[in-house]
Specification:
Blueprint (H helix, E strand, L loop, with lengths): L4 H8 L7 E6 L2 E14 L5 E5 L2 H6 L10 E7 L9 E9 L5 E14 L4 E31 L8 E2 L19 H9 L3 E14 L6 E9 L3 E6 L11
Parallel strand pairs: 7-8, 7-10
Antiparallel strand pairs: 1-11, 2-3, 2-6, 4-5, 5-10, 6-7, 7-9
Family: Belongs to the TMEM231 family.
Protein name: Transmembrane protein 231
Keywords: Cell membrane, Cell projection, Cilium, Glycoprotein, Membrane, Transmembrane, Transmembrane helix
């Protein structure tokens, strides 16, 4: 019986036929200077839209912000390892007398991993907040987290998801709304999402008539799912 115990432990822990394993890696993330912003006001018919995509701006022309917002951002590498650790961003939107009650913001990133497969994708961070009280600023802090419904490849190049988040070539489903964009993105098996978020909504109206958005997004080390080579797995003996 003593000799059989290690066998049963290994069997029930899937040690003989383990097909998926994990490893830790900090991704190489870069903000692509692409974004969509939608502000909703107390008047349901008065939406404020702005993006870095000219095709979207043409479609949303009747809601397009006439004065371009001021956007300041920087990415920081705190431990000097060559990979950025966080994004800090401030967006200042000129509004005159409009009262903002909702924010929707989509930021686009490059996301790369190197340890096993050479993985790269275009990904997104989406944030939104709504309230009945008009605000002068919105601040949010969170982590850009990897979401996997399937493991990454264990070797070679993996560019399955290195395609535009906002894809104007997709037939029959043009990216003319946040709903269409997010639905298409959510259907991928590998994405990113903003997690562990903390948000602050400042009520009132700014003295200069603008609405300010403050962001800090961390790029944390991730636990990555990957298939063991040839699906055979590790033969583990205690």
């Amino acid at each position: 019986m003593t000799l059989l115990c290690p066998f049963f432990i290994t069997f029930y822990s899937q040690g003989f036929w383990k097909k998926i394993d994990t490893y830790r890696e900090q991704p190489d993330v870069s903000f692509k200077h692409k974004m969509l912003l939608l502000l909703e006001t107390q008047s349901p018919d008065e939406l404020i839209f702005w993006s870095t995509y000219e095709q979207l701006n043409q479609v949303m022309n009747h809601e397009l912000l006439q004065t371009m917002p001021s956007v300041e951002h920087r990415e920081e590498d705190h431990n000097r390892d060559g990979k950025k650790d966080e994004l800090k961003m401030t967006i200042d939107v000129p509004l005159s007398k409009k009262k903002v009650v909702s924010v929707k913001l989509l930021l686009i990133f490059d996301y790369k991993l190197y340890f096993y497969s050479d993985f790269s994708m275009e990904c997104a961070a989406y944030m939104q907040y709504s309230t009945s009280l008009p605000g002068s600023s919105f601040s949010t802090f969170g982590e850009l987290s990897l979401m996997q419904r399937q493991p990454l490849r264990h070797a070679g190049k993996d560019v399955r998801y290195n395609i535009p988040v906002i894809d104007f070539s997709e037939p029959g489903n043009p990216p003319t709304s946040f709903e269409n964009i997010l639905l298409g993105y959510m259907r991928r098996n590998v994405t990113t999402s903003l997690k562990n978020t903390y948000s602050i909504w400042e009520t009132g109206h700014a003295a200069n008539g603008s609405f300010k958005i403050n962001l800090v997004i961390l790029y944390p080390e991730e636990t990555i799912l990957y298939p063991l080579r040839d699906g055979v797995g590790k033969h583990q003996f205690a």
